[in-house]
Amino acid sequence: MAEFHHFGVPSQTVREGATYLEGAKVHVTDPEAHPYRVEFVRCEPGCPLPEIVQTTPHAAFMVDDLQAACAGLEIVVPPTAIDDSLSIAFVKNGEALLELMQAT
Q1: Cα–Cα distance between 35 and 7 in angstroms, integer?
Q2: How far apart are CA 104 and CA 98, in angstroms?
Q3: Which residues constitute the domain of residue 63?
Q4: 3-state class of 51 per DSSP?
Q5: Is the four-CA dihedral 63, 69, 74, 75 of positive or negative sign?
Q6: Which of 39, 63, 81, 87 is the most buried (most CB within 10 A)?
């Protein structure tokens, strides 16, 4: 089952309180702090993420089984552990860019 988590929006605006993900060269805001669960994503030059992830809004969903949720979809970023508690993948489903997330 997939449960909506946030809507990610690429942005070039510097936002106070954003978290910096050093390996990805990305600054992200906390969607839980936004009334509509929007996460603003600001990529630095040299960001290793695919261009589509850097420039396209995405919907993010928590899933129980990340591998199973990715099955049959176009993989943009394969399942990756972000830290000890979260793994993510970016996929395309038709024209939609999705971030699938699994608590670990």
Answers
A1: 11
A2: 19
A3: 2-103
A4: helix
A5: positive
A6: 39
Tell me, what amino acid is at 32? Answer: E
Amino acid at 61: F
Total tally of structural domains belonging to the chain: 1
Q: What is the H or E stretch that residue 66 is in?
A: helix 66-70
pTM score of the predicted model: 0.94
Please say whether the beta carbons of 98 and 58 come within 8 A. yes
> In this structure, what CATH number is given to the domain that contains residue 23?
3.10.180.10
Q: What is the pLDDT of residues 41-91, one digit of tens each?
A: 999 999 999 999 999 999 999 999 999 999 999 999 999 998 899 999 999
Residue 53 structure tokens: 């992830």
